[in-house]
Design a protein that fits this description.
alpha/beta, two-stranded antiparallel ribbon
Length: 356
């Protein structure tokens, strides 16, 4: 058992949001819940802000469905102050109907994408999945715990990006310079917050960030495996605007081309900018770590996000495929799987080497 963590300060607050008038009254909407802990043995000046992905909340980082410690505890022990958020209109950040309709994630999709992809084999790497702590299907106690912590999300992903950009920027305005740790859907929030507050974002740890660039990817099983989904990222990595150099008069100024062939048979053909590529003006000096799991549905395309970042001038981008480090069998929910501490150590080591 790990030693107890001594906490010097903890609490919560809300940031962001605005008031709107409606027929039944005036409401505050778009606010974001933030929970923080500062260890007594704090050795790192920069705090870590943890953003969860689609349908998830800060619970992803405070523990696991089978009762182990989460990444919050890991990084507190490593000497960091940790801020864990709930996205606007999700979990402890109350939903107001004026922000849009909500959607839910059904059991089958959770099993396919997160907990038991090896049973469905919708992408080539899915059969390698071994790290979920349990059977990963309905009725298994660990799965039922995980399913219990899935929350409805706003139906509009572009709106989610806007709300999290604005609330995330407000958070940094309050706490100062920080490291952003993003996962999945919230990967877009990391790029947008860094674009809005480049002087306050000192590093981004992007765990399988939302991708691939430009078009979504649809996994459909053998033999064809992949096809393009909707055109969801007109700014390459996001739906809301990013700052490019030369500047864009409209998103149509960005021209995209596709690789002639994939880098490997189990990978998609990447979309990227036509040359000469515009640069992501506000992200160029920010260190970025992109982590890819071996068996995740991101395994076919996270390299495309890395290619896009580097082509756009974000040259301080480090790309780690966990399998290359001998860390095998992980699916998309890295922070909840059996070897979550081993993966957190990869991020801790990179932060130590990059920021000191």
């Amino acid at each position: 058992m790990a030693d107890p963590i001594s906490i010097a300060e903890q609490g919560y607050f809300f940031v962001g949001g605005h008031y709107e008038e409606h027929p039944d009254g005036r409401f505050l909407t778009g606010q974001m819940y933030v929970e923080f802990q500062i260890p007594a043995q704090r050795t790192k000046a920069l705090p870590i802000v943890m953003f969860s992905g689609g349908g998830q909340s800060g619970l992803n980082y405070t523990g696991t469905p089978d009762g182990r410690e989460g990444w919050r505890q890991f990084f507190l022990r490593a000497g960091y102050a940790v801020y864990v958020i709930d996205q606007p209109s999700r979990a402890r950040s109350p939903h107001q109907r004026e922000t849009g309709d909500q959607t839910r994630t059904p059991v089958r999709r959770v099993q396919q994408q997160f907990t038991a992809p090896e049973l469905y084999k919708l992408w080539p790497q899915a059969e390698l999945h071994t790290q979920w702590p349990g059977e990963g299907v309905e009725g298994d106690p660990v799965f039922d715990q995980f399913m219990s912590q899935n929350f409805p999300s706003l139906a509009s992903f572009p709106r989610q990006q806007e709300l999290n950009r604005d609330a995330g920027a407000a958070l940094l305005d309050r706490i100062g310079p920080a490291i952003l740790l993003t996962h999945s859907q919230s990967g877009t929030f990391g790029w947008l917050i860094a674009d809005a507050r480049p002087e306050l974002v000192k590093a981004i740890v992007a765990m399988e960030p939302s991708g691939p660039p430009v078009f979504d990817n649809v996994t459909k099983g053998a033999p064809d495996w992949f096809e393009d989904g909707p055109f969801t990222k007109p700014y390459g990595l996001t739906a809301p605007p990013l700052t490019y150099d030369p500047p864009l008069a409209s998103p149509q100024d960005l021209r995209f081309v596709r690789q002639d062939k994939p880098e490997a048979p189990d990978r998609v053909r990447c979309w990227e900018q036509a040359e000469p590529a515009r640069k992501l003006a506000h992200l160029q000096n920010i260190p970025v770590l992109v982590v890819e799991a071996e068996a995740s549905y991101h395994a076919p395309y996270d390299h495309c996000t890395v290619r896009y970042l580097r082509q756009a001038g974000v040259m301080k981008t480090t790309y780690i495929r966990l399998a290359d480090l001998g860390i095998h069998g992980n699916g998309h929910m890295l922070m909840l799987e059996k070897n979550n501490a081993e993966i957190a150590e990869v991020a801790r080591k990179w932060l130590e080497e990059t920021l000191g």
